[in-house]
Structure to design on (818 residues):
């Protein structure tokens, strides 16, 4: 069985979001240009360098990074450069993660920033850098430095340029991932990549959001952190946390519109949710999009822990691949979750069909048809308490094993 | 690629252990008889009921159980019956886990005990019961009760009977698993099953140890708990914890020998280690036996947490399947472990060959040959502190996905 990729992903929160190759992505908001080229980092000859530039008037920026304690050089550099809340340009490459290269890796990342700084005429500390690809190989610096001039030369505000940037950050992604939310008075655009959220050897999830709203770094950070928590941090393809994960939000202020925090939060959440859904639909080896909602435990945090434990259970994920309504695996997985539950009164449903009530199977439990592409698993842990959380995951398929058993060699 | 099973597993601690189909297993110590039959629980017609009886003079017993909060009916019943430190007979079945069947499941387990109690003429509270197989289906009670008389009639102290019992508890196991340690003055025997340690829908790991040593329940429990912690609890095939896991130790005192706690501990550890190694070698879809040793963190407990996190990482496990020395995945996995580490000074070796030093690759890291069946991964987290722990796992193969995507349907 081969993995069928999902070509369309819908945003599930926050109203209408435009997506797809023609939507513009990071260049949809006023004040942004982008470009993407084939510099030659990848042996495949596919595009591998991208650039996003904020033409202002404001250069506000915020970021969220991987929680992994082993972090890649570009994360170290970008963390440092974004500390003052201002970034003018983001330089991205795929094909090499520049992770686990020690001090020389940091120096390579800084040299890339310096070269772009010279070319754009902006301070080096206003450059962010992101890398994605194999861990442990030094960046091919001649290739990277040779790519700077054509990248800057190719900068454009056309939708084609947005797509070129989104395409150049792909690794094992099969489709580019973009989203645009047009709110009253301002726009938020985004591009992202990542198909093993978060698959470490891929050094995997990168995202760049842009907006023409006039906001402070504090507003940007609050919106991005809240949205990431609800979207990217609840997408769990394989339980593995990358060394390189970075999501940036750049704000140009070019709309002149000053949104409330609530307006900004809603728009940022909407595009993050769309990008997360697109990542789920393009996940490594995916044949099923699985959403797991947990209720009836000690509040939202407990529900999230329990949903994540189910979503990471290989036996559950294999059952989803087999369209197998094996609710026993849901119970066995959630039974080890360190959260409040009534072990005698757990309810499980697949796509709205109750398959387990009071921790026992319903008579027709094994007749549920899970042959479709989307499976919603709902688990009520029976304590009667409120709060719920949903985690998105995928099945565990032959293609996932195939893709990940032959990556570096 | 099909999974090659490992036909021979060596004990790695505690001196010489006999194993293999002819070793006697649970009937090797004096005072024990066993039997195994095909009752008809499994559609395949394979053996599915087993019995182990302690003929004394002592009927000492101890047990360790699953930590899952969703526990199967036989666990509930056996926990109750073993509370006084005495068990005469263990009734086991494969093909049905009797898990998640609520109160009726407990009543089914009790009826099985009562039937055996009548047949053997011993109190019902001296009977332990273990089930393994699919979760959520009621036991076929006519078949179970019909199996009691032939099981009792077939009881024997011959090695053939030990093997018959070990065979009748298999599910997706391909080989029976037995071990015997002949210590000075006493003997410890064992049988076990489990190939997705701990794969919940299989309701998976069962073990019965027997000894002719003259020991107290407290000695038995101390030895079993310590040995389980070092062996079964450090075997982690897929991170999933069964609802049925049970390991029992029965002591007949028939040797008349009273060992010290240390002598008992060593012998029990040796057979548990052998059974654990046999389970690893027969794990679902296994093509590689992988041992992960972590040092240089905050002591043994931290080392165990870190080793387990690496051993559960699907990307790492896929790399092992591909014989891929992708040390970046080891670093990315261990980087999220909540333990002491120096992120700039991590060392990784595969089969004694250093592939990563100071969190960076060595020049010949990608040339290491991992095509053999056994891979030892050593990770030094760089804090300079003592303590180490080793976890056994396997690779993640196509066969694992295949076996587990079509189990209940």
């Amino acid at each position: 069985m081969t993995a069928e990729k999902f070509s369309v992903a819908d945003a599930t929160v926050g109203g209408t979001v435009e997506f797809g190759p023609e939507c513009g992505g990071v260049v949809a908001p006023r004040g942004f240009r982008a470009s993407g080229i084939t510099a030659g980092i990848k042996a495949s000859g596919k595009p591998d360098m991208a650039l996003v530039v904020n033409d202002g008037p404001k250069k506000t920026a915020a970021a969220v990074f991987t929680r992994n304690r082993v972090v890649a050089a570009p994360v170290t550099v970008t963390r440092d450069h974004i500390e003052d809340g201002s970034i003018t340009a983001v330089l991205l490459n795929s094909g090499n993660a520049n992770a686990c290269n020690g001090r020389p890796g940091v120096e390579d990342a800084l040299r890339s920033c310096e070269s772009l700084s010279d070319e754009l005429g902006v301070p080096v500390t206003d450059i962010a850098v992101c890398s994605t690809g194999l861990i442990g190989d030094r960046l091919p610096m001649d290739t990277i430095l040779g790519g700077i001039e054509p990248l800057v030369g190719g900068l454009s505000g056309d939708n084609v340029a947005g797509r070129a940037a989104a395409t150049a950050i792909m690794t094992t992604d099969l489709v580019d991932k973009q989203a645009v939310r047009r709110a009253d008075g301002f726009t938020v655009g985004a591009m992202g990549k990542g198909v093993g959220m978060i698959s470490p050897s891929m050094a995997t999830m990168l995202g760049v959001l842009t907006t023409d709203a006039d906001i402070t770094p504090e507003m940007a950070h609050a919106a991005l952190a809240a949205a990431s928590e609800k979207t990217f941090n609840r997408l769990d393809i394989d339980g593995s946390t990358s060394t390189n994960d970075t999501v940036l939000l750049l704000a140009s202020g070019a709309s002149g519109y000053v949104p409330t925090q609530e307006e900004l939060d809603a728009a940022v959440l909407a595009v993050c949710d769309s990008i997360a859904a697109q990542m789920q639909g393009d996940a490594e080896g995916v044949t099923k999009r699985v959403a797991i909602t947990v209720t009836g435990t000690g509040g939202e945090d407990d529900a999230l822990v329990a949903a994540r434990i189910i979503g990471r259970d290989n036996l559950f994920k294999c059952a989803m691949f087999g369209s197998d309504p094996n609710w026993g695996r849901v119970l066995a997985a959630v039974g080890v979750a360190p959260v409040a539950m009534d072990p005698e009164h757990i309810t499980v449903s697949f796509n709205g069909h109750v398959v387990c009530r009071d921790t026992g199977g319903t008579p027709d439990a094994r007749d549920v048809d899970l042959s479709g592409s989307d499976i919603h698993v709902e688990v009520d842990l029976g304590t009667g308490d409120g709060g719920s959380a949903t985690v998105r995951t995928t099945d565990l398929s032959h293609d996932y094993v195939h893709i990940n058993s032959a990556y570096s060699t």
About this structure: The mean pLDDT of chain B is 87. Chain B touches chain A through 71 residues (CB under 8 Å).
